[in-house]
Every structure is written in C-alpha cells, then in structure tokens.
Automatic annotation (TrEMBL):
Keyword Metal-binding: yes
Name of this protein: Inositol monophosphatase
GO molecular function terms attached to this record: inositol monophosphate 1-phosphatase activity; metal ion binding
PANTHER family tied to this protein: INOSITOL MONOPHOSPHATASE, INOSITOL-1-MONOPHOSPHATASE-RELATED
SUPFAM superfamilies in the cross-refs: Carbohydrate phosphatase
Organism: Acetobacter estunensis
Cofactor(s) this protein cannot do without: Mg(2+)
Residues holding Mg(2+): 71, 86, 88-89, 212
Domain of life: Bacteria
Keywords: Hydrolase, Magnesium, Metal-binding
Amino acid sequence: MSAAIARRFEAARAVVADAARLAMSMRPPPGGPVGIQKSAQDWLTEADGAVEAFISQRMATLFPDDGFQGEEGGMTRKGGLLWVVDPIDGTSNYARGRNRWCVSLGLLEDNKPVAGIVAAPALNETYTALIGHGAHLNGTKMQASPVKDTRSAMLEMGWSNRVPKDVFMDRIGAFLDLGAMPRSGGSGALALTDVACGRLDGYLEIVINLWDVAGALPILAEAGARVSPFLEEGGLEGGASILAVAPHIAEAVATASKMKLLP
C-alpha cells in the first residue's frame, strides 16, 4: 500500500468523524419521518445534502486531484483515485430519529477498493480498513463469523422498491430453507459491516448502488468475508446485486441466493 493511500486514509478518518458529528447535530428527534419522500421507503433529509457537501469540500481541499462521487450530487470530480460517499446510509431510520444509520466513505484506486470508513455515531461505532492492514471496529481488529452451519446463521436481506416482490420472496424463502434466521435493518452499509465483524453471517441485496457499499468493500475484504463481484457486474455504472457472507457458509448461501462469489 502506497504512502499516498495511507495518508489519504488517515485524513479521511478525521473528515468522516467530523461529518458524523454534523449528522448527529442535524438528526431529527424520535417520531414520524422528517424529510422528503422520493419514492416508497426512500427518504431525503436536509442532512444528506449538508453532510455530502461537507465531505466533498474537505476532500477537495485536501486532495484536489482526486475524484469524488456522492449519492446526492453524483460524479462531481474525476480522477484515478475516487472517493465515494453515502452521507447518510439508512436515511429511513435517520429520518425517524433512530440509531441505525451511518456515514460511509470509500476510496477506489483504478476502480479497486483500497480504503473505507463507515461511522455510525449514534451507535458509537466506526469501522475502518486499509487494504493490507486489516479491518477494525473502534480500533480493534475484527474478523467475519466462524459459523459453519446455515442452521445457526443469521442472514439479512435488504429491500428495494426496484426489486419485484416475487424475487424478494424467493430469496427470503431460500434463506428460510437453509434454516437461517432472516433480518432487515434498513442500512446496507451497516449490514455489510455487520458481516465483517460477525454480527451477521450474510447480507444480500438484489439492487444496491456503489455509494452504499464503497466504504464497506475494503472492510469486508480485510475481515475475511466472501463477497460477490459487485464492481465487475455493473456496480460502477449503476445498481447491482451484492452478497457478503461468512467464509464457511459462503457456497451454500451463494447457491441459495443465486449469486456468484469472488475467489
């Protein structure tokens, strides 16, 4: 790992910490959703734009030659090194004053994930990874789950209004046939980091975007989870499917999910 990437990683950790504090200061109180509903269960809050703008401006000042892509603003700068941000992942939770949401920032070098930071300030947790240096939760090294039997597994599946109901129900049914316990928490990035630290044994989402997963991909790789070829199967250009799963049950869950896995 080059010194340039390591320097960016350390700077990004500080930027995300500041962005997370900004998001906390803007979080609505518990109650009905606050924000604009873009489509079914898809929310936009004032914090989404404010946090993305904050991170974009800080990274432009620190690394003006780097590219930048955000959920709200799209690709605003291009470069061989690309920062990808989801300012509030889990906005439906955030909009109701719930705790399960995060600020996610990933760094890609030549379209390969090399560093990631996922901060969940309401949970007092920050996940980080620099390729070749391990994955950490609040500074403590972590690994994917050692579960070897799907009947002991806890699997999450994300919901999207872009996925037909019969497809969603088919995959959930396949998880139940494995004897697994299904979950759904409303934040793709945090579900992926839960796989990385072993709180979940697998996560599947049929359609998800780059900004939802960019921060978590290096964390999964360094934690030893198995992951589907999201970037190679269209994730750089638009929505694609992702599966992240504990290594010992990876093949069984991939078969049930009708997904391929990276070697």
